[in-house]
Amino acid sequence: MGLPRTSDGDHPDVATVPVMDEQQGRRTMKPRIAAALLSAALMLAAVGAAAQNSDRGPSNRRPRMNGTFTDAANGLGVFSGTMRLLRFDVQNGAIVAIGTLKGALADSKGNPLGRVDQEVVLPVNGVTSTCDVLRFELGPADVEILGVQVHLRKDVLGIEPRDGPSQTLGDLLCSSANLLDSHPLPDAIATALNEVLRTMGLPK
Length: 204
Description:
The protein is of the alpha+beta class and about 200 residues long.
């Protein structure tokens, strides 16, 4: 004996299970990522509001850093913040930047996980220079932040003479360009980058 049917031909006791295709899944995930980004951005804004004027906002002295991580729900959490460059060094034959990372973490649902204020070491690549601009890549790197592994995306910095005493910094950029043309060792490049930071008013 078959199940009784309603007037429209459906079985009254059989539940209909909605099927979500891949495209619908992506549409559902996007608002969650957006919520996490918004939460981290709002938390970072609160951190910045408490800082001094010289510490507000990203710049060549305080580059913007963003990243992602897998949270406890296996979702995509986000980090948003800045890094205060302190000095350059050579570790295992490669140039690195050492600085203070500040910002906030938020999980995939947008819940804030905490504020970040810690020292990090990031790889430096692609150092080039002319008399007008010194460029280098900061990151990418996987860094442990508040107990989770965060993948920080690459940021490209461009330092110009106007970012410090223009005549002095401009001369340094020209010197850096001449140095890089000679294919120097990493230690020489790190020394030149530290001199640029010093001239910009940053600690060595």
